[in-house]
Batch of 2 targets.
Target 1
Amino acid sequence: MQRTILKININNELDVVLAYKRAMQLSERLGMQQANQTKFATAVSEICRNVVEHVGSGGIQFSMLDEVGVNYLEALITDRGRGIGNLPSILASHTFMSGSRGSGISNSRKLVDVFDIQSDSEKGTRVMLRKKLPSLGAAVSKAVLDNWTTEFEEDADISPYAEIKKQNMQLLEVMEKLHLQNLEAEQQLLEIRRLNVQLQQSNQDISQLLEDRDRKNRMLEEINQNLDAFAHTVTHDLRAPLQNIDGISTALEACIQTNHLDEAQVMLPMLRHQTQKMDRLITGILAYSLAGHQSIAKKVLDLQVLVPQVISSLDVPPSITFELADELPILYSQEIYLYQVFSNLIGNAIKYYDKPDQGLIRISFESGKEWLHFSVEDNGPGIPQEVQHQIFFMYEIGKAIPRADSSGLGLSIIRKIIEEKGGKVWVESSGRGSRFSFTWPAQELVNEV
């Protein structure tokens, strides 16, 4: 007998987080041991993330079932994509590099008691994950399951994405009201024209109303664009520390399994550093969204320290070396802005480098009267002339220079930050190598005493 508990639509990274959370809650309430709770939730997260990354949308259904006297908690993840063409080779292989295509399926398969996957180019993909329940799970009644479903629907936890959706719905309601006011104002305007001089004052009031409508429409359009950019920024900027945490956790698990506790102890500060970095990013991004662009606190930043910190946070192959300007400046500015700009530019130079050795990334700086000039130059494959004007817009770099691990957001985030500061960003590339340059207000330069 199978009893459905909960269904969730999977459309983005935050839905993946929600699926992980519900998997943990259900497995805990059904009496699983903590280790098995984590295994089941991690398997759910891996498959749901595959849906988001490779298809875009899908769904998950949690159920409880009894099969031949054994109780299971089941997660059924489905999508309507084009299927997985190399599924037999993925299932046959036992070794995957972390983050490679197919690693999510392989990892999830190891974490559950029952695993089944069906994939078809016309029907999409269906993945079934089951974890055994202790005996007390069998005693859960339908009324209890219904009560849990109600609790989840009334869950008061508010994520940044949920708050954005709520605000966006409110803005759409305001837009609809303004549309109705516009129709009413236009009707009144026709009547005002017939009344001539006697209704001159009313005519002025209507004109003012129309001006307010246009101003508010422009404000709403800008707010919607900012909300969209904010949601994408959260997803884009949190991926790097999450991937680092995943890699460190995998290595840590291997050390523990092989009883190399000294090596494991060395990795703990690295793990803590990545979580602290993620906390700084979340705090800064929320400040960016909730406090307003001009309200982010400034601080004194030594780029001679900040830029190496950015480089150390990235996954840099041994084949790539760096050349930094001898004297990078000290600025009084927003740390989250400068961190994102350098992280995205340097990260792209690393990501798109196409040779096994001799990679070079040069970071230079020139001071001007009104603007500071920064450059990040590489000896990579270069950028074709015909697409250089596109890459600073959202998703365009992914179309111009396709990569499976690129979200297409990094350069659009850089452009938004630089324009917020009043500066400019551009690229120069002719043949091999690219030089990304941007300007920063010289008034933020701290002159050393």
Target 2
Amino acid sequence: MSKTTRSLIAAAAFAAVSLPTLASAQELTIYSGRGEAFAQPIIDRFAEETGIEVEVRYGGTAEMAVLITEEGEQSPADVFWAQDPGALGAVGELFEPLPEEVLANVPETLRDDEGRWVAASARARTFVYSPERVEEGELPTSITDLTGEEYRGRVGWAPTNGSFQAHLTALRVLLGEEETKAWLEAMIANDTQVYSNNASQLQAIADGEVDFGLVNHYYLLRQKAADAAFPVEQSIFANGDAGNLLMAAGAGVLASSDNKEAAEDFVAFLLSEEAQTYFAQDNQEYGVIEGADNAGIEPNIEDVILASPPLDLNDIDDLEGTLNLLREVGLL
């Protein structure tokens, strides 16, 4: 029996008292920007626990946000489960405010200030590097250092990845539009290597293609769990740097939904002890409810919070502007 299965079974009793049992005739449609391998086990447990039939449409977070915006009130989606706050903010006006009992156990910094979406888990943006080819003095203290000549051709990034796009949206807020564009252009001029996602950057470092990458923290932790000798390490930039960011992956209920009660119950389930244990202990993301067990997850969430620049996640909602910027500089 896998660790995932054991933790889901062990927490089932909690979920049984935390969620109402709903009529099996109810149906729920979820648009998920979270990957199927990550999301489906929890969706299946929700369906088993409540008897609700769940249909899931998977896709990139930005893709799902654009689709929901285009569909508007005609969208068949009841819930949007996204991997970053930028996508959630982009469709925020289409969300129904969540009940206070759903929001209450999550810090205000990890939910919409109008209660329209809430984090289900959190991820830190980090830089990864090769401990075999990188000297201590070469470790960057700022994300803007990576445009330096000493990093030419040695850095990887994933411009089509939703988490990178959310981080870029944050950079636009923190640094301003012109400085962010200049950073992108300088990175391109510095021969930054393009990869499809976080995992491919890790592999590229292990294979010697590049020496650095910009990723979410949990990808390396999962790789290390499978192979403790995997030749990649990670760190965060200096305190207050725009390269550091604690990002929410969360969900909201569409105001156009005909199944709002079931949709709200699903969001509540994401914040149950069962789901939070799964996110943190099986998948190495940070749990977000009070008392979440984030032991053993590196970097430590308190260190990430301390290192992060002052930023309201509600301000990183201009996903379309970020996509336009990426197109303008030739990265999309």
